[in-house]
Structure formats: C-alpha cells, structure tokens
C-alpha cells in the first residue's frame, strides 16, 4: 500500500472533520449577481472541493439545520446595509461541526478586446474571478486561502448558466472561472491548514 499527495498513513487513518459553509459574501457590486442561486452554487462548490481533499466531510442536510443554513447563506451573500457582521454572530445557529468555512468573492472583472483581420473583427471577453476562503475552529479563523480563476468567451453576455435551480459551473466561461478560483482557494487553504495541524 502506498500513499500519494504527501499524505502519510496517519493522515489517511484520521477521520475527516465535519464542516459547514456559513456563506460567501459578494463584494463585487455586480448587479447581475443578486440571485441567491449563485450564492448557493458557490457554497456547494466550496463543499465539493473541500470534500475532495479527504480532510473534510460536509454535514448531512438534515431538516433541523436547513433553515439555519439558508439564513446564513442569504445574509452572507448580501447583508442588510449597516449590518455587515459575521453571519454566525448575526444568527448564532445551533449547527455543530468541527470546522466552519466562509468566503468572499473579492473581485469579478470582464475585459473586452477586439481583434481585426481586414474587414472582420472578433470580440473576446476575458473573465477573472477572485475568491478568499476562511477556515474557523471554535469560532476563530485558523487559516485562509485565496484563489484566482480566468475564463474566455466570445459572447458579449457573461452569465452563470442555471438549470433545474442549480448553477452549472462547467457550462459557461464565468462558471469555469469560478470553479478554478474556488479550487485554487481551497488548495491554498488546505495547504495552510496542513502546516498548522
């Protein structure tokens, strides 16, 4: 038996820590991002990426915590004006887990460029996305990670694709950029976490 990715036998035998994502805050001031489905999609994406590390397992969706998670996600995405505190402090939920993760979409940019070839022109849009994640134990931030993602499209419109009330991160350039940013942020956060364990 052998282990890869720098994990020792002790790491493999350690039971994963339970986690919940308390929300992602949108600091981009992008009007098109008002849809809560984007917040839920990003939260699910963070949970998926953290679960894939083998170090964490999301709490099971039990009916008694679903309403609390919904409140936290809604509050974090666009907090009421003048009440911008940590969602955990705002609601004091009864959700119990080993760790809690929160995040911020720090930057979302679109850069348009045109190329000309004789009488023809072609427009291209480059999308960049920056996410920062924070890992808390016992209510205190113990590490963080930031990730950037880029995508390109020939379309003038830059949107997430929504299907069956879920964001399809692999269907659009903005979705792919978001996935890259979240994956990079999780990788950096996990690296920092493993250095302090």
Task: Report on the architecture of this protein.
The protein has 197 residues and is an alpha/beta fold. The chain has one domain (9-196): Rossmann fold (3-Layer(aba) Sandwich), CATH 3.40.50. Helices cover 34% and strands 36% of the residues. It contains 5 helices and 7 strands; from the N terminus they run αβαβααβββββα. It has helices at 9-13, 36-52, 63-77, 87-91, 173-196, and strands at 17-26, 56-58, 99-117, 120-137, 140-153, 161-163, 166-168. The strands form 2 sheets. A 5-stranded mixed beta sheet has the order 2-1-3-4-5. Helix 2 packs across helix 5 (173-196). The longest helix has 24 residues, at 173-196. The radius of gyration is 19 Å and the shape is globular. The model has no long low-confidence stretch (mean pLDDT 79).
- Total DSSP helices: 5
Strand content: 35-45%
Total domains, how many?
A: 1
The biggest beta sheet is recorded as: 5 strands, mixed
User: Rg from C-alpha positions?
Assistant: 19 Å
Order of helices and strands: HEHEHHEEEEEH
Query: What is the CATH level 1 assignment?
Result: Alpha Beta
CATH architecture: 3-Layer(aba) Sandwich
Helix/strand/pairing class, anyone?
A: alpha/beta
Widest β-sheet, arrangement of strands? 2-1-3-4-5
In percent, how helical is the residue content? 25-40%
CATH topology: Rossmann fold
Shape: globular
Average pLDDT confidence is 79
Short description:
This protein is an alpha/beta fold and 197 residues long. The chain has helices at 9-13, 36-52, 63-77, 87-91, 173-196, and strands spanning 17-26, 56-58, 99-117, 120-137, 140-153, 161-163, 166-168.
């Amino acid at each position: 038996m052998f282990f890869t990715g720098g994990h020792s036998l002790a790491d493999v035998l350690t039971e994963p820590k339970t986690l919940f994502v308390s929300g992602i805050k949108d600091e981009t001031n992008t009007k098109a991002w008002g849809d809560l489905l984007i917040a839920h999609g990003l939260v699910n994406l963070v949970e998926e990426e953290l679960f894939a590390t083998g170090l964490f397992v999301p709490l099971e969706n039990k009916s008694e915590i679903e309403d609390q998670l919904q409140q936290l996600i809604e509050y974090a995405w666009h907090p009421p004006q003048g009440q911008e505190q940590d969602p955990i402090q705002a609601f004091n939920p009864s959700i119990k887990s080993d760790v809690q993760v929160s995040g911020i979409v720090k930057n979302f940019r679109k850069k348009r460029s045109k190329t000309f070839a004789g009488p023809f022109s072609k427009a291209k849009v480059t999308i960049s996305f920056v996410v920062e994640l924070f890992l808390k134990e016992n209510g205190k931030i113990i590490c963080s990670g930031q990730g950037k993602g880029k995508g390109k499209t020939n379309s003038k419109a830059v949107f997430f694709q929504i299907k069956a009330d879920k964001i399809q991160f692999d269907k659009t350039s903005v979705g792919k950029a978001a996935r890259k940013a979240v994956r990079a942020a999780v990788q950096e956060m996990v690296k920092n976490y493993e250095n302090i364990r």
